[in-house]
Amino acid sequence: DTWFRDHAGCVGSVLMKIFGPDNELKDVSVGFNVMTTAGLAYIVSRIQTTASTPAVMNYQAIGSGSTAASAADTTLQTELGRAAGTLSAPTSATDRLVTTLGAGVGTGTIQETGRLNASSSGTLYNRQVISSRVKGAADSMTVTHDVTFS
Questions:
Q1: What pLDDT shows up at residue 6?
Q2: What burial letters (b/e) apply to 48-82, b meaning 16+ CB within 10 Å?
Q3: Which helix (H) or strand (E) holds 141?
Q4: Is 83 helix (H, G, I), strand (E, B) or coil?
Q5: What local confidence, expressed as pLDDT, does residue 1 receive?
Q6: C-alpha distances in angstroms, 2 versus 5, 6?
Q7: SS3 120
Q8: Measuring CA to CA, how many Å separate 75 from each of 27, 37, 58, 89?
Q9: Chain-wide mean pLDDT for the chain?
Q10: Which of 53-57, 106-110, 129-133 has the lowest mean pLDDT?
Q11: Measured between alpha carbons, how far is 102 from 144 in angstroms, rounded to an integer?
Q12: Which of 17, 30, 42, 56 has the most crowded CB, counting CB atoms within 10 A?
């Protein structure tokens, strides 16, 4: 007998761009994030739920916390702002959320980002910690968050 085993997994990446008030690109950050335990449980619940479906993961939060991301995280360390984004599937195995945090939203030193399913609180799907980036009061930020399943 030959035994086969699927090696399914997912990789999350985040592209963050900060634009000045003149809409000129000021800063770019690219990196990978940590899938949280709650995020993995969320995926299972979406597959198995037949009654009330859990809320969609269409919110992106940014914060100033610098503690390393962990699977045990349930919130950002220090959230500065959050906004709803647009969901798409650029490939059959990629989930994408693109969010714009406009002027005055999440102003300050940005060091973390996370994806959630509510406008406040909610389930933290994953979290990323980056090197410091400054988002001024008149700046906007676009966050593209991809999760690719294999």
A1: 56
A2: eeeeeeeeebbbbbbbbbeeebeeebebbbebbbb
A3: strand 140-149
A4: strand
A5: 46
A6: 10, 13
A7: coil
A8: 25, 12, 15, 25
A9: 91
A10: 53-57
A11: 14
A12: 42
Residues constituting the chain: 150
102 secondary structure, DSSP code: -
Is residue 141 within 8 Å of 113, Cβ to Cβ?
Answer: no
DSSP state of 86: E
Please name the residues in contact with 119: beta carbons below 8 A apart, sequence gap of 6 or more. Answer: 59, 82, 84
Element (H, E) at 35: strand 34-35
Q: What's the confidence (pLDDT) of residue 7?
A: 55
136 by Cβ neighbours in 10 Å (0-12 / 13-18 / 19+) ranks as middle
Name the percent of the chain lying above pLDDT 70.
93
Whether pLDDT at 4 is above 60: no
Lookup: tokens for 50: 């037949």
State the residue for tokens 């995280």: 73
